[in-house]
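re: ur question from earlier - yeah i can do the single chain one, its not a big deal. heres the input i used so u can compare w yours
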Amino acid sequence: MPKLIKNGDIADNLYTWQQDSEAAASDTAIVPMTKWLAEKESIGPVAGIWIDAGEGTEALADVDLNQFAVIGIHFPAFVDGRGFSYARLLRERLGYKGEIRALGNFIPDQLGYLLRVGFNSFQFNEDVNLEKALVLHKSFSTAYQGDVIEPRPMFLRR
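and the output i got, formated as tokens:
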């Protein structure tokens, strides 16, 4: 079974990332957001949806997101920062409480920043050593700025 980093530990990946919009949905599938939105009446149960870069979160404004166990955000390249904004919007504006998973081409060096905007699981490409990535998971114990986890900046926490 493939592995990922979830909540600070290496864990089994229980869900299948359906990258092809023609792939069959199932209760363990993470399907494209556009597919789910277009077929939600007939698609059947899915574990979650994934948002591609450039799609945004606006189409989910009237959706009960907490019906999904996981929402994935795809990074087409590690230099594409739109996924950071999507995660923060899911947490703060849309009130999503479940698992937000980074998918695709991001790098272990970004873990600290991804955690601060609301990600809690990371499905790396196969060539990434998860043991080494886990070391970067909690490289800093305190951040000066506010974030999704602790919105108050350091000077207000004293």
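DSSP finds five helices and eight strands in the chain. not sure if urs matches, ping me
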